[in-house]
Amino acid sequence: MLKKLTVLAFIFVFSLSQIAFSQVTETSFEVTLPSGNIVKMTKSQLEELITKPGIGFANVTPSTGLPEDQIAIPLPPELGGGYLLGTPEAIADGMNAVNITVGATAEFVVKSGTRTNTILIILAGIGGLLALILGGGGGGTTTPSSH
Questions:
Q1: Residue 77 sits in which domain range?
Q2: Cβ contacts of residue 139 below 8 Å, gap of 6+?
């Protein structure tokens, strides 16, 4: 009888641990798109996103520049940093495919004419880092996020 109770108790505890484990969710982090829209994504979603057609990843800003139709989206340090690369259409399709967004379009990712703004923001960030490295003091460039 005691042996049966021990086995039943073990099964009960094991079942509870499986239920608790299955309910653990991965933390998502905010990514600001060139359009100013903010999306939340997990590391797993990002890993899956960069495998989608037309989407790439770079640890640093591409120094040779991007093709005219592509953009670079800075990723927060919590997601490993770097840049998400691709056309606005490919990025929108990829985000929809991995459930970051539902029904996102290129317009959601980047508004018309904001590719230049993205490049300027990236260059301003690099300029701020260079100023700090070269002893420019506490000055730096930040871009406010819109909520």
A1: 29-111
A2: 128, 131, 132
Residue 80, in any domain of the structure: yes
Would residue 3 count as lying in a domain? no
Residue type, 44: S
> Residue ranges of the alpha helices (H) in 78-114?
88-97, 106-109
pLDDT one digit per residue (tens) for the chain, 147 residues: 666 655 545 555 555 455 444 446 899 999 999 999 999 999 999 999 999 999 999 998 876 788 889 999 999 999 999 999 999 999 999 999 999 999 999 999 998 554 444 444 444 455 544 555 666 444 444 344 444
- Distances 82 to 4, 10, 75, 105 between C-alpha atoms, Å: 55, 46, 6, 23
Give the C-alpha separation, 86 to 105, whole Å.
13
The two three-digit tokens of residue 42, written as one number: 């997990």
Cα separation of 51 and 97, whole Å? Answer: 11
Report the C-alpha gap between 83 and 81 in whole angstroms.
7
Q: Which residues pair with 129 in a beta bridge?
A: none
